[in-house]
Design goal:
The chain is mostly beta strands. It is elongated and about 180 Å long. Among the domains are: about 35 residues; about 35 residues, Complement Module, domain 1; about 50 residues, no CATH class. A 3-stranded antiparallel sheet has the order 1-2-3, with no helix packed on it. The protein has a 3-stranded antiparallel sheet with strand order 6-7-8, with no helix packed on it. It has a 3-stranded antiparallel sheet with strand order 11-12-13, with no helix packed on it.
Length: about 270
């Protein structure tokens, strides 16, 4: 290649070819690399052989003496020394731990609970001596008990009732109505009471369930001149007659308002 080489000289050609001059001939062969480490770094620019000054671990270049944790998250600690990566796992105690968490490196078995002659697993829930009003839970070898929460009642205290075997009170059913209570005037009528609410033609009765049932009275006039009595619904045809705004009793005679020569008599029929 236009360059003179001394006999026995050795040099490197591009492409990592190692060449030597022997007896006027050039002999070339691929450079043979001896890598004395487990995680060498790739050859630097212009070089042919990997270097053990640093480490390549899981595709990440680590400097000499670098301490790191692997990506698998098993809590191991690794160090880069002369191209070699050494990892150490933490030593975990053989006994169980009280409250394991997902971030702990040591896998542990939560302690069981021995409570009143029985053994419960961690996280187990049970009642206290068959009493459903108390709930207990095993947490890392210790038992915690608490009362069962009760719902909030919307009835007054005197209507609350705690039945046999129940943990929480319940509201009693309201007592059966003893009558009908009217909000407009504050009057309470007993069951079966009949009254008029102000209109003499309307009658109401207090039902057994506390409701009020009302009904109007239909009047049938049986005479041409009935008498209307205040406070009475239907006109009265038996008491006398009404004539020109005046009331006359039965068999009463009176002059006609239209003709003074005429005499009228009230006849109830």
């Amino acid at each position: 290649r236009g360059i003179s080489r001394e006999p026995g000289s050795r040099w490197t050609e591009p492409g990592c070819q190692s060449c030597t001059c022997q007896g006027g001939r050039v002999l070339c062969d691929t450079v043979s690399c001896s890598v004395p480490c487990s995680h060498p770094l790739p050859a630097p620019a212009g070089g042919c052989c990997p270097t053990c000054t640093g480490c390549l671990h899981e595709g990440v270049a680590r400097a000499e003496g670098d301490v790191f944790s692997p990506s698998d998250g098993n809590c191991s600690v690794c160090v880069c020394l002369a191209g070699n990566v050494s990892c150490l796992s933490p030593e975990c105690p053989p006994e169980s731990c009280p409250s394991p968490s997902p971030g702990d490196c040591c896998s542990c078995n939560p302690a069981k609970c021995n409570f009143r002659g029985r053994t419960y697993a961690h996280g187990a829930r049970f009642s206290l001596d068959g009493d459903d009003c108390t709930t207990c839970v095993c947490q890392g070898g210790e038992v915690e008990c608490s009362f069962t929460p009760c719902p909030v009642l919307d009835c007054p205290q005197h209507q609350r009732h705690l039945g046999p075997g129940q943990c929480c009170s319940t509201c009693r059913d309201p007592p059966a109505p003893a009558g009908c209570f009217l909000d407009d005037n504050g009057v309470e009528f007993p069951v079966g009471q009949i009254w008029s609410p102000g209109d003499p033609c309307e009658l109401c009765i207090c039902q057994a369930d506390g409701s009020v049932s009302c009904q109007r009275t239909d009047c049938v006039e049986t005479c041409p001149y009935p008498i209307r009595i205040p406070g009475q619904c239907c006109p009265d045809c038996s008491a006398g007659c009404t004539y020109m705004g005046r009331i006359f009793s039965n068999n009463e005679t009176f002059p006609s308002a239209l003709d003074p020569c005429l005499s009228c008599i009230c006849l109830v029929r």
